[in-house]
Structure prediction request, 224 residues.
Amino acid sequence: MTGIVMEDLHHDDHRYKMAKKLMFAHWHHPQHRKVILKHIWFITNNTPGGQLHGARYNAYTNLVAMASGKPNEYLFHSTQRACPIGNHHNNTHLRNKSDCYMCPIIKNSFSLKHAKATGLFGPGIYATDHAAKADGYYKDTHGNRTRCVLLSIVAAGNTEYRYGSNPLPPSLGFHSVPGGTVLGNGSLLKYPETVVYREDAICPFILIVYDLGAPDSVYHLHGH
Ligand SMILES: [Zn+2]
Prediction:
């Protein structure tokens, strides 16, 4: 049976506090726009697809932990949303719109189907600890005023540093590629990304819904 897919977290919930802290930890918006939090949702992974993904993720992350001795990382990702999911307390209805990439992730986790073969580091799943960088990848085709990013737990394991863009998955013994690599022209990507090449290396667990303040706003706006 399928339970609820999203839980609207209370401000006092430890998951809410953790997600909020990570959201603001590296918030460097290029136009100095502030975050105005609306909702922080826990993604339950209670659907059949979500449960299957969770089991695959657990198996893989145990292997990565044993091989690398490294903890998992909490990283942000965003994508295209074509519906109002998460905007309001009762807005938990997953739709099957082909142009909404957010709902399938909430329902069944990440899929390499939407991985960008043209990405700098090939067809992987890209995530970052800089929430404002993930925000830059948010795209709205519904007319929402709000924006959203996903916070995921990522089995980044051993990262293989690379010089120049390289579309191939990491070599044997490595589990991810840091997108913050020195580029061919010697410049650094300003805010590093982590790229994993397996669906079971990443599991979404939080959806943060927010507004952005006016560009170069002088006010410090905190949602709650
Ligand atoms: Zn949707």
Summary: Helices lie at 14-25, 48-68, 102-108, 131-135. The longest helix spans residues 48-68.
